[in-house]
Amino acid sequence: NTSWLLRSRAPNPSGRTRGHGIQSSGPTIQDYLNRPRPTWEGVEEQLEKKRKGSKALAEFEEKVNENWKTELEKHREKLLSGSESSSKKQTQRKNKEKKKSGSTDVF
């Protein structure tokens, strides 16, 4: 007579579902263990494909880096050739600012 009381107080809800015939959704552990696995040859082929792909990517990145370096060098040369005249202007501006601030600080 008290068996219904014990069944209703099952501490494990999955145990309760198994007892009532409710099936869980998704793959079972048995399905997971029986899944198809690649052979060693298949794994080696995949690794070889990865190596080839990474070599091509490395070559591409190297080419892009070389182009970027040459572009940076051109930009630096342009800035350095134009910065000599602009640096003289900047020093003249700073000197003017110092003269102006020096004369106004008298109290």
Automatic annotation (TrEMBL):
<feature type="compositionally biased region" description="Basic and acidic residues">
    <location>
        <begin position="58"/>
        <end position="79"/>
    </location>
</feature>
<dbReference type="InterPro" id="IPR026766">
    <property type="entry name" value="Fam133"/>
</dbReference>
<feature type="compositionally biased region" description="Basic residues">
    <location>
        <begin position="90"/>
        <end position="101"/>
    </location>
</feature>
<protein>
    <recommendedName>
        <fullName>Family with sequence similarity 133 member B</fullName>
    </recommendedName>
</protein>
<comment type="similarity">
    <text>Belongs to the FAM133 family.</text>
</comment>
<feature type="region of interest" description="Disordered">
    <location>
        <begin position="1"/>
        <end position="107"/>
    </location>
</feature>
<feature type="compositionally biased region" description="Low complexity">
    <location>
        <begin position="80"/>
        <end position="89"/>
    </location>
</feature>
